[in-house]
Amino acid sequence: MKTIFLHTLFCLLATTTFAQSTPESKLLGVVDLNGLQQAPYASWYNPAYQNYTPNPGIAAQLKQQNTASINIKIVFGTWCGDSRRELPRMMKVLDQLALPAAKITLIAVDNADSTYKQSPGREDRGLFAFRVPTLIVYENGVELNRINESPVESLERDLLKILRKEAYTPNYQSYSYLNKWLKAGLLTDENVSYLGLANQIRHNISGESELNAAAYYLLNSGHEKAALSVFRINVALHPNSANVYDSLGDGYLKNGNKERALAFFEQALKLDPNVEETRNKYKKLLMIQ
Prior knowledge:
Blueprint: E1 20-21, E2 27-31, H1 33-36, H2 42-51, H3 56-63, E3 70-76, H4 81-94, E4 104-108, E5 134-139, E6 142-148, H5 155-163, H6 174-184, H7 194-201, H8 208-219, H9 224-237, H10 242-254, H11 258-271, H12 276-288
Parallel strand pairs: 3-4
Antiparallel strand pairs: 1-2, 2-4, 3-5, 5-6
């Protein structure tokens, strides 16, 4: 079970380097600041930008950083409350670096069911921005670090640590592990130990929703096998949760294994027989078995 939906609904395709607005008032694709400063987005972007004042001492240190080889990507959603709060502040802080506009890429993603946290041109591909907004700092094309959703200390302090290559662990610590495991191929390895991976992040996870969000992102963005691994890790961490068994059932269903999906929906119902969504999925699978 999840907080996003599963039915198929494709977002509009972006045809230029600028974003387009959908009837639901969402920007999608690669955008520039001009788009954000127009209605209806200006109503939240401009006040949040104007009302944020970076710490003067930290801002002064940011201005001293050598950013010749630095590029930044920000993945966000105009539909997302966290993005509406943090994106304008991020841009205010980035002003301290005086980066050319060409070095900052703003990627607006969707919240539709089958395109969740994806941009129409898939500029988000490979970024694994499990939460939005995500600010990613690159040096010579190699990721230095990222800010997940909100700062650990403050945006300017977090960014300064990243640029100085100081020790910095962003929010949702499990996501750093997931990105590492994805690159190493662990999440698609048939022989990987899900319990072993779970034990590595057991003390660095806020709750079951942290991994569930990442798994559904992977499931709906072409990484079905990796998503299944994350669901299984979540079950290893939360074996008494009906929700994670339901989600694992979704994972197996998307991977084409109806028998395993049915078994995990059944397990979810044993733990909580009152969840109508799980019961409906279970009954539907029984009818087509």
